[in-house]
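Tutorial, part two.
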Amino acid sequence: MAALDIRVLDTPDEMAAVEELERLVWPGDETEIVPVHMLRAVTNNGGLLIGAFDGDQLVGFVFGFPGIEVTSGQPRLKHASHMASIHPDYRDRGLGYTLKCAQRRIVRGQGLEHINWTYDPLQSRNANLNIAKLGAVCNTYIREYYGEMRDGLNVGLPSDRFKVDWWLNTPRVEERLDQKKRRRLSLDHFTGAGAVVLYPAKIREDGFLEPLADSPPLPQSPVPQFLVEIPPDFLALKEASPDLALAWRLHTREIFEGSFAGGYIASDFVFVPGARSRSYYVLSHGEAQL
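Running the prediction step on this input gives:
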């Protein structure tokens, strides 16, 4: 990908371009758009809006703001990354990764070490970026995080979300971001080490994956790792069969809630390319596995 101009956005005109890109990516309901006046107010009070430009065209952005979390009874600052978006013509080129790395550099320069955000756990593209490439982890599943959503991407489904933690200064994250040293682990690596696909899916006649009706229970005794399959292209599946999309939401809701309650953490993500691509979360037991 040709070099793009990555910069902090702070003018109303730049924010108007962000608003237009939001409308393109999340069509269908104006109430889901973060407007210019809110972007302006947040960035003038410690928030961070970073954009990517190809010439004069805004093709991606990431937006967040400082927040407060309580650890061991003590409040401390964090960065809450609220929204990130890539123009459809610029997806799968590594731009999301570039924007998140720019966000990390600036947030670290502010003296903060923790960024968190939410995403739909059934979106394999986001899982691959957030968990596998950036090194974020997740042990928090929130039902109906946004309530009923009306934009074209989310309408008709419960807005369940993963809340992920990106610990910016950890060896894990440093390793994931070192593209020269980081070797992506394959499905064979995990299965060869004894991890089983505890919740495999079956292929329907129309080519879409369907969760098994009778899934095995979670391990009664903790195992080091196991894998959970999700659809490789959830948006296409949802468009073709809303009922199947809902079945996947309810199926994985039960798995992830039970797994996180049992001490497991989403620590990696595996995408298997091919004519029938497959996608798997890696769930590891305890922080020692990270």
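The mean pLDDT is 91. In part three we will examine how such features are distributed along the chain.
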